[in-house]
Amino acid sequence: MQPPESSVHYSRWDDSSPDQVSMAAVSNTGEPSCCQRISQKLCGGKLGVAMKVLGGVVLFWVVFILGYITGYYVHKCK
Fold first, then answer.
1. Where does residue 73 rank: exposed (0-12), middle (13-18), buried (19+ CB within 10 A)?
2. What is each CA distance from 73 to 59, 67, 70, 76, in whole angstroms?
3. Membrane spanning segments where (predicted)?
4. Number of domains observed in the structure of the chain
5. Range of the domain at 70
6. pLDDT tens, position by position, for the chain (78 residues)?
7. How far apart, in whole angstroms, are the C-alpha atoms of residue 67 and residue 69?
8. What is the pTM of this model?
């Protein structure tokens, strides 16, 4: 799989105006790949928000449980 080609165009015609730099990615096909479609579906819109909230809740509980277990063994009475 080859990386997509990109073109960079830099123009500076007048010193008083800010520099203009434009970048455009050139794609060989008109439609996004399978991974891009899945990423757009899971990371955008209402489903994307729900996935991020669910991921945050799962991450919270994983860290909580690991901290609880670690604290138990660190502070266990001998």
1. exposed
2. 21, 10, 5, 5
3. 53-74
4. 1
5. 5-74
6. 555 566 665 556 656 656 666 666 555 566 878 888 888 888 888 888 999 999 999 999 999 999 999 999 998 887
7. 5
8. 0.50
